[in-house]
Amino acid sequence: MFKEKNKKILILAPHTDDGEFGCGGTINKLIEEGHEVYYVAFSPCKQSVGSGYPSDILITEVKAAVKVLGVKQENLKLLDYDVRTFNYRRQEILDDIINLRSEIQPDMVFIPALTDMHQDHKTVAEEALRAFKFTTILSYEMPWNNISFQTSCFFKLSEDNLKAKINALKKYESQAHRPYANEHFIESLATVRGVQINAKYAETFEVIRWIN
Q: Which of 11, 17, 104, 183 has its CA 20 to 30 A from that of 131?
C-alpha cells in the first residue's frame, strides 16, 4: 500500500471493539509492514455492559485486544462519551477529532461506513469526514449495521493476520454473546472477501477518499 514505512494510520472506533471487528486483520498487517497505528475509542459503553461485569470492563478488554494486534499502549486513546448519545454531542466529537488530526497528522483514517445504521457509528463517520478533508479515508465493514456497502478496496490477510484478529476479539469476553462475535463468522467473512479477490482471506473497505 505505502512504499515508505512509518506512515501514520488512525482507527476511529465509536465503541471499544468496533475497530477490531471492522479492520482488526488490517491493523495487524499494517503494523507488520512497519506503520504506526493509533486506535481511538470514543465510548467504553459503560451504560450497556451486561450484568456480572464491572461497568468499565470494556476498558480492560480493549487494552488487551489492541495489544494482541500489535498496537502500542501509548497509541490507544480512550474517550468517555455515553453510548447512543453521540448525535447530541456532534460538536464535541468534531472538536476531539480535530485535536486528533493536529496531534497525530495521520496519512490514512479508518472510520465506520457513512451508511451505518447505529447512530454513534454514523456520527463519528460524518464528523471524521468533515475533519479529514485532505486525508485518505476508508470505511470499514460491519455487515450487521450496514444498509449498503461498496466493496471498493481490499486488504489481503495472511493466516497470522486473521488469527490476530480472532484472538483480539476473544479478549472481549463481555461481548461473546453477540451473534457476530464468534470465530466461525469472522473467518467466514474473511474467506468471502478473499474469494472476491482470489486470496485466502481479506478485509474490504469503502473508499471515501484516496490521496497518494
A: 17
CATH assignment, 8-209: 3.40.50.10320
116: cell is 451505518
Tell me the pLDDT tens digit for each residue of 43-83.
999 988 988 899 999 999 999 999 999 999 999 999 999 99
Closest CA to 122 of 150, 165, 88, 168: 88
Domain spans of the chain? Answer: 8-209
Cell readout for 153 is 478496496
Tally helices (H) and strands (E) across the chain.
6, 7
Is 146 strand, coil or helix?
A: strand
Q: What does the alpha-carbon distance between residue 42 and residue 207 come to, in Å, rounded to a whole number?
A: 22
| Per-residue cell: 101 | 488530526
φ, ψ at 14 (rounded to 5°) = -55, -45
Q: Low-confidence residues of the chain, pLDDT below 70? A: 1, 3
100 touches 79 (CB < 8 A): no
